[in-house]
Amino acid sequence: MKIDQRMNTNLVTTNLEMSIQDAADLMESSKVHCLPVLDDEWHLVGIISDRDILRALPSPLTSLSIYETKSLMANLTVSKIIRKDPITVQRNVTIEQAAKIMVEKDVQWLPVLDGSKLVGIVSRTDMIKTLLEVFGTTTQGCTINFTLEEGKGKLEKIIKDITSQGFNIIAVSVFSGSSANTKELRIKVSDGELSKLKETVKPYAIKVLDTSSDY
Length: 215
Prior knowledge:
- It contains seven helices and ten strands.
- By secondary structure, the protein is of the alpha+beta class.
- The chain folds into two domains: 129 residues, CBS-domain; 79 residues, Alpha-Beta Plaits (2-Layer Sandwich).
- Strands 8-9-7-10 form a four-stranded antiparallel β-sheet, with helices on one face. A three-stranded antiparallel β-sheet has the order 1-2-3.
- β4, α4 and β5 form a beta-alpha-beta unit.
- The model has no long low-confidence stretch (mean pLDDT 91).
């Protein structure tokens, strides 16, 4: 799946000349925590976040009054606190590639470009929502998580056995096991009982780690 299938295209943006007071008000009214900063041709020149604005404000221990603080924010522009050259991706990268970049670069937001123009933005929250879908958490069913010995074609056999029992596969996730020759397998299904699912995977499981049902 490409990142442009998950990116937020309802963009709330700012420019270099906007005051940080107006930028803060825009974030609050739009319920966002980050604003891409664009030039007149819709090219991304940087980003600012609510954290950047907070860092630009005087310390709470300052002697400045609320009026003086607001005056400072009204006269300080986005250009003074902008984070230039943010990490970006092109719209044709996969979700996995985008997630890897966000983890490796430790970024909360990832602007998405089409060439040099901004077309969307992805947040860590968007990635978590996608992960929940991958795990099938938005669909009712029963889940089993177990370890098994690694082997060519074994996953195919397990899936075949499960579907032959009338189960509908919602999600399958494979993780590294506790040793080099084992894997951890998480399977969520519908149209069947958890007890039957446990019996079906029993011949393959070294150990059942946990089970759940949200029927």
